[in-house]
Amino acid sequence: MITLEIKFSLPDKVANDAKAAGLLTPKAIETLIAKALRRKAFDALLSNADRVEAAGIPPMSMEEINAEIEA
Question: How do residues 6-31 score in pLDDT, each as one tens digit?
Fold first, then answer.
């Protein structure tokens, strides 16, 4: 595990509301970052799918997918 010390400024209302909601704890920040990373990976996956579709590449059948996995 890596320990990071992060310092940032927030408007008073945002900071107070986030603190009251428990969003400034290490666990809450870890959860927020993990969710953001998953969302970013999902967006990249969708972007790749859009490029594949735009290139006119036909989708693979389940048989083709299984053959690739076994190869």
Answer: 999 999 999 999 999 999 999 999 99
Domain ranges in the chain are: 29-70
Q: φ and ψ at 25, to 5 degrees?
A: -85, 155
pTM for the predicted model, two decimal places: 0.66
**Strand, coil or helix: what is 50?**
helix
Contacts within 8 Å (CB) and 24+ apart, 16-23: none
Q: Which amino acid is at 47?
A: S
Cβ atoms 23, 32 nearer than 8 A: yes
